[in-house]
Design brief:
single chain, alpha+beta, three-stranded mixed sheet, 3 strands
Length: 81
C-alpha cells in the first residue's frame, strides 16, 4: 500500500471542481492528490515550495564546498595591470 505524505487528501475529480477551495480547506497544509486512491501529486503552498527549493539549493552548495575543500587555492588579483 502506498504511503500518503500529507494530512489532507483530495481526489482529482474534487480538485478539478475547485482548486482554490481545496487549498483554502487545507489551511496551509500539503495536499495529496489522489487518482484511483493512489497519490499522483502533492500540492503545497507557494511559501512551502519556495522554502524547499531554497533548502535544496543550500544542500547542493554544501556538497560543492565539500567536494572542493581539499583543493589547492589559486591566487588571483583583481587589480588592473
Amino acid at each position: 500500500m502506498q504511503r500518503v505524505e500529507a494530512s489532507v487528501a483530495v481526489s482529482v475529480s474534487d480538485l478539478k471542481k475547485s482548486p482554490s477551495a481545496v487549498m483554502d480547506d487545507a489551511a496551509g497544509q500539503t495536499v495529496a492528490v489522489l487518482n484511483h486512491n493512489r497519490v499522483m501529486a502533492y500540492m503545497v503552498p507557494a511559501a512551502a515550495y519556495e522554502a524547499m527549493i531554497e533548502r535544496l539549493d543550500d544542500l547542493a552548495l554544501i556538497e560543492t564546498v565539500r567536494q572542493r575543500q581539499d583543493e589547492t587555492p589559486v591566487r588571483v588579483s583583481l587589480d588592473a595591470l
